[in-house]
Amino acid sequence: MDASDIRSYPARITRLGELALDLSWSWNQRAREVFRRLDYTLWRTTAHNPCRMLRLAPQERLEEVARDSRFLELYDDALANLDRVRRASGSWWCGRASMPPGSVIAYFSAEFGVHQSLPIYAGGLGVLAGDHCKEACDLGIPLVGIGFLYPMGYFHQRVNADGWQVEAYERLRTEDVAVQRAICPGGKLCYVEVPMAFSSVRVAIWRVSIGCVTLLLLDTDVEENTPWDRELSARLYVSEHEARVRQEIVLGIGGVRALQSLGYKPAVWHLNEGHAAFVIFERIRQKTEQGHSLTDALREVRASTVFTTHTPVPAGHDAFNFNLVDHLLSGYWQSAGDRRNTLLALAGYDDGGGRLFNMTALALRGAGAVNAVSRQHREVTWKMFSPIWCGSADEPPLQAITNGIHIPTWIAPALSQLFDHHLGPDWIDHQDEVEFWDRVLLIPDEDIWKAHQALKQHLLAFIRERARERWTNEKVNSCQVVAAGPLLDLSVPTICFARRFTSYKRPNLIFHDLKRITRLLTDSRRPIQIIFAGKAHPADDPGKRALQQVYLHALDLGLAGRVAFVDDYDLHVAHFLVQGSDIWLNNPLKPLEACGTSGMKAAINGVPHLSAADGWWPEAYNGKNGWMIDSDPSGGDAAEAECIYRLLEEQIIPAYYEMGEDGVPRRWVAVVKESIRTVAPRFSARRMLKDYATRFYCPIATRSSLLLPS
Asked: What's the chain's average pLDDT?
């Protein structure tokens, strides 16, 4: 799709479609205001999707705004910014690495959560990858992402009257999203062939623009493919083992070939999780066919490969039967000779259930730079995979780069405006400077409280509107309407639990002692309320049962409408929750959370974290910026639930309800300020990308440049 394919535009606004097709608009307030002002009703009803807006907007409205001086001022500013970020001249990256001409950092991920209008993400991994791309754009890093188009996307969630999750898939309309077919240097549509068993799969390449960053999306829904191959890239994270391996072969081998067919020359290959580990096979194959020995090929691949692992749960590391992988790569081995056994051995790993082809093991052995996503996760990863490093007691070749979040995407506009006024309009340029954020302490308490109350009101209005839609469009019963949250109260402290529903995240821990939590929820003088949101994987029945248990509490009339479940959790819903809640609850079973970035998003918006000592929180908690759920691990769920209740009863609820004469809870606001001050600079994507650049990207890229023949 080309920008001109959407429709024709008045001469003065001919680049409006181009603006919509570059997702850098999604965190540029001036660009967002262009589309809001174009048609606010369409902006809301399309869930902030400019491509769909432009397809639906009446021609007379386009003619009208083309004569509107205020609109044209916004339009011109947005385009000037777009041109600037695409050039990336004078950016932070410039001069930091000696990159060969045409070189890029290739960033592979099975999902990318850039914006809700492009639903090619399932959860935290994808949102992290999206934030990685956005911050690379802001810093001018020449990054190209490689993932899947997923024509069926991830599922839409509805919860029925019994509390059971129902999944519905909706085919992606490419004319409604910011994707275009990639064009090869010769001017033809780009396709690559990927060997599969004794045949091959034809893969179409789509392109997404994110300022100076490009995202390449692989799509097997091609007419020449068999019906089952056309479905290969239809959905995220298929459960059936053979389909999953086939997907990952397409991502790794097909991704390498897609980059090459479009003329990209990666100096750095970054694998975000093990799903893309077949990149290593394809790169080794190409180098050996160019005359390199297998030993030299593996050495060169390692020297330019970065691997980030996100999973502290053994079941989260994809592992397959060797015979299955060997069969699916049978055509691939035709020219491999003795390399076949050596390559397969790179992935061999026994985590206690027998030796399998382990994608994480392949990535660990094929990468020269490896990192976990928090300090604690580094320790967990080392213990899980220490045999790969020969069980050495020495320092492992494993670093920790704690995840961060893209602040321009996640900060609420109301807080951004507050920072403009009190910190200076250039505050975003100082976002990773720790001392700069001390200025937050000087913002008047009443200003912080007023801004947060407005965001909370916005959240509750959104929830009420969603409940009304369920009532009118889905004809749900009255109890389900109440369960959706319309009775939530602006004056009541609001806890939010929003994340993937799976057993180790313990979504129903707060209900461990039902009598005690009921007393807190229904207290006549100082009640609390809880919002839940999140999806369970379609194949995760225990996760679905946990969701059902939570939903049944939301249906319980005895809890007086103080518990709500917001369904179909996505990036759009997440913005309302992380900006408008009062407390962000996180209680995974330690040490099974790698990082947990949703709490960072909440904390920078003045929503303090109430979390177990897992993931990123032990690095952030200072005793004043939130609360730590800490207890004797031998006490199990009961001990941790007791800790949550005690924190609520003794610290959180009293601080929230302790109002000054001016109606401002100053003890509470002190926690809010400290949350913003300490989390924003240290857990921003800017700090994270600078860590990746200085530790990995720059040294590897410079080394690649020096290795080029003169």
From this structure: 93
